[in-house]
Design the sequence.
């Protein structure tokens, strides 16, 4: 939960449950921490203090004095995003990249990610990854093939695609028998995401790319290469549709498999072909019951093309980003409730930092990809904590949490949703979870998905609470001079 993947600095997501207990137990409680007290008997679903009513966004919105208060309007969000691009080093402005990248820059970008870990890794069969598999994977980096000057290419992602630490589909794990968290899985990109292509693997099947929020390897078959104006201008002008559900899908079409039942995740924005005659068919289906959107595809030579596709009106989409209000944040967060936890957006789902960033993406707010970057972003209104911050300071900050505030502990992020009976409640995408049970021992839950829990009883180890471990709280507020 708090250590990094062994081949890079601290990452944003929780580690496997088998590693969790040992890692957290090694962290000694601060001297000011009180001994944990047994919490009340677990309630709904075995989750401490949970009531079934708490699993509905309306329950929390109805408790607010002004749930439809606009936190930031469209102009303020645009200013916030400009601040994020200007001040946060984890955000990459693709428009500012030079036409030619020097070898040292490309090599440095790849090596900062694709460094083989020193610890033993295991395959899905439980056997250690062999030296042959290691050599083959490293050879596929093709580092010797990077030219002195690499001409920059641009592309659009055509299908939800994994971002990988190495150019391989090989799944590797930290321990035998725990195959839930693939250590080479980094993140994912969605249809319409723009990328800059920096390098190609030796087997020609992978591209090393930089997107707005991440640099990693992506399968070449999911990227259409086009000119900069087309790629960077895609979806920048209306009309368009914004995906406001956890996911939406294009219509099934055997005539054009490239855009058939395509998964579109929350916050994806697609341009609409507004002048398409509604009686005219799109891929064998009349258009009147759908929105005709323009989607990127890749031809046989890898070139980018934009073609029409149907996005049924039954899918959860809107003609603009949703208003940034407490009610919206609650509604959007609860659309993921019960979704399986997916490390690095594995399983076609998401992890804790992807969860919160996609909630905010549906209102048009740009967030860094990983919690390690989100937690310290200078573009957000940050409250930082150190080991010197004692319990009263932390408790006071927790009591002041507002809907939508993001609470960070090492390797994890949670979103505040409200206060009831002296407890602060959160929604978060978690691989684990635990609290002190009625018998005084720690209950290790396997929530393994988007869950609602109280903050105060949550324990990172037998002696250290989540509140003890808070490193940062981030909040979006109107900017003042």
Sequence:
């Amino acid at each position: 939960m708090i250590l990094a993947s062994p081949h890079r600095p601290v990452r944003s997501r929780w580690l496997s449950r088998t590693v969790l207990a040992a890692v957290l137990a090694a962290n000694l409680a601060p001297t000011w921490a009180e001994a944990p007290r047994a919490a009340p008997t677990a309630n709904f679903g075995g989750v401490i203090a949970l009531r079934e009513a708490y699993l509905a966004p309306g329950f929390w919105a109805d408790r607010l004095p002004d749930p439809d208060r606009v936190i930031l309007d469209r102009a303020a969000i645009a200013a916030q995003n400009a601040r994020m691009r200007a001040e946060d080093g984890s955000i990459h402005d693709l428009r500012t990249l030079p036409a030619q990248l020097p070898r040292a820059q490309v090599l440095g970008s790849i090596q900062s990610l694709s460094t083989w870990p020193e610890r033993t890794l295991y395959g899905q069969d439980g056997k250690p990854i062999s030296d042959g598999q290691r050599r083959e994977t490293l050879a596929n980096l093709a580092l010797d093939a990077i030219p002195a000057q690499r001409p920059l290419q641009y592309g659009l992602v055509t299908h939800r695609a994994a971002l990988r630490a190495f150019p391989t589909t090989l799944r590797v794990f930290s321990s035998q028998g725990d195959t839930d968290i693939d250590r080479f899985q980094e993140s994912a990109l969605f249809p319409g995401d723009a990328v800059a292509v920096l390098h190609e693997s030796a087997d020609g099947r992978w591209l090393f790319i930089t997107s707005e929020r991440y640099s990693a390897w992506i399968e070449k078959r999911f990227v259409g290469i086009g000119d900069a104006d087309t790629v960077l201008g895609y979806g920048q002008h209306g009309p368009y549709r914004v995906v406001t559900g956890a996911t939406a899908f294009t219509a099934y079409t055997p005539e054009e498999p490239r855009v058939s039942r395509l998964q579109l995740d929350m916050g994806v924005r697609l341009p609409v072909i507004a002048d398409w005659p509604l009686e005219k068919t799109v891929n064998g289906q009349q258009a009147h019951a759908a929105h005709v959107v323009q989607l990127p595809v890749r031809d046989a030579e890898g070139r980018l093309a934009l073609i029409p596709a149907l996005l049924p009106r039954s899918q959860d989409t809107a003609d603009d980003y949703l208003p940034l209000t407490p009610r919206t944040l609650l509604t959007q967060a609860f659309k993921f409730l019960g979704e399986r936890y997916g490390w690095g957006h594995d399983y076609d789902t998401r992890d804790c930092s992807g969860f919160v960033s996609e909630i905010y993406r549906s209102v048009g707010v740009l967030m860094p990809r990983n919690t390690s970057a989100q937690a310290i972003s200078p573009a957000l209104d940050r409250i930082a904590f150190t080991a010197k911050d004692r319990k009263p300071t932390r408790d006071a900050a927790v009591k002041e949490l507002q809907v939508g505030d993001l609470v960070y502990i090492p390797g994890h992020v949670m979103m505040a949703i409200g206060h009831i009976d002296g407890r602060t409640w959160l929604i978060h995408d978690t691989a684990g979870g635990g609290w002190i049970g009625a018998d005084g021992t720690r209950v290790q839950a396997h929530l393994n998905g988007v869950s609602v829990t109280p903050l105060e009883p949550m324990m990172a180890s037998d002696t250290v609470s989540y509140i003890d471990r808070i490193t940062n709280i981030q909040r979006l507020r109107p900017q003042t001079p």
